[in-house]
Amino acid sequence: MIQVNTLKAAGISEQEIRQLETALEALQTAKNQACHQAPHIVCTGIYNAGKSTLLNSLAGKEIFPTGDIPTTKKSAQAEFSGAVYIDTPGLNAMEDDDRETQAAYETADFILFVANAQNGGVSAAEAMWLQKLKERYGSLQQRLIFALTHSAQVDPEQLPGIRDKVCGNLSKAVGFAPEKILCVDSIAYQDGVADNELLLIENSGIPQLQAYLSECVAAARETLQKARKADVTKRRQDILGQIEKIRNGLKNKVDTAAEAGKKQIAVLDRIWAEFDQKLASAMPKTDISPIFARFLDLGFDCCSDIHDRSQSSLKRQMRSYLRPYYDKRREVVQDEVNRVMDDLRSYYRYCDQGLDSEYARYRNQSNTVFEQWILNLQKQGVPVSMKQDISAAIELPSDLETQVRNTLLKNVVQSDGSYSFSSYLDRFHTPQGMTEYVSGFLGIQKEVTIYTAYGIDMQNEIVYRMREDLQRKYESNVNRANSLLNRYWKRFFEALTKEAELQKSALKQQVDAYKATLMQSFEFSGSQDALTYMDSLRKEVTQ
Known about the structure:
The chain has 543 residues and is of the alpha/beta class. It has helices at residues 4-9, 14-32, 51-59, 95-105, 124-136, 140-143, 159-174, 186-195, 198-203, 206-218, 220-282, 311-348, 358-379, 400-409, 421-426, 456-523, 526-542, and strands at 40-44, 76-80, 83-87, 110-116, 144-149, 181-183, 306-308, 433-439, 445-453. Helix 3 (51-59) packs parallel to helix 8 (186-195) and helix 11 runs antiparallel to helix 13 (358-379).
């Protein structure tokens, strides 16, 4: 029994389903065809071809009714000469007659096809019915007996040509010509019998047909065994051909759906990979260093050498010269710290959680990526949504800005022992005096000592040391200030990453669920179910 609903659900047409049912029934009929004790010979042909008259001649008595108009309406049978002969209504007259004749074919062991020799060959209607018989019987070549009636009404010289033409017509219609095409005339035979004219009886062709039929009946068992085997083979080939045709169509549907599904899944995978990459680039770095230590300039301007006769006076002059640079350290550092704090407030805003802060920027940046790619996925038909926006809030101390400022200033300009003004002066050698002679009172030459303290190079080095020590200390404090900000930034980063991963995981589940549904839509579609059924039917037919 064909699973009609399964095939209809896969879009198989009703015509194809009916053809499949017909082919399957024909296979079962061929397999179950009974072996008759006496062979059944079905006489068939176009109406008024002389079927009933021919059968009466073969039987030697009036068994089947005859007439000038179609007389046989129901199949009739009679057993004689070792076989059961079945007379059928003429083909191509009425639909009921055709159906009655086709029903008789189901019990046939042999087909005695009768055509009128006066037609000069096989007509188009006869060719059509012979083709239907070929479709019904794969073994028609073993079963077909072909007779040309009314042959006495044709010029004897024309009969060989008519027989040759019939052979050609049959080869074209069913792919073969029977071994024998017997020309007979039932009226001539009956007249010969009535008048006891042996020559007329012999020339009627009826004795030759009777002899040929006797041969067929005698060899029927072996012939019909081969015929039935050929029929089963033909029916099996027919249904396997239909199964293969339907199966190829279904396979093409399944493959097309699978290819479309795989392409869509590939698009989703590409969109997801782009989203994953974009989200990663939108996330903040683990560590930040928003404060950069710039070069601290004390504004050094070299002076000329200082000379004096007194060492203490020289030191006072040198102290007076270098002191402004030392005192400027506080101002330079304070200006730099103010600049840094302005940057943190105006550009980076790591010290608050307002709408313009770095915290808010990265939260918004991450949410924007989610929203954009959710929209991209929805355009592909994926029913995804974001449960809630990423907030990633952390608690910052109210005095964080003050803590950063204090850290930057801590001990940078404090005059401790290492960085006191005196320490810079005492770091160098005491000035050496040089003896000079000068004119004194009354022009008397007198020897004096002139001290030259800290030449230009030495002054430059002292100021350079001040700046270098100041820069080193400030850079150290910058690192500590960055560490202070990182302490809170890492907490924010961890909170943001956790929320983003949770949202990403939830979104991935939605995408994976849709992909799974998409896979099922073509793996377990109606076409796939029908394809599975066709495979099982093919296996059943081949067993």
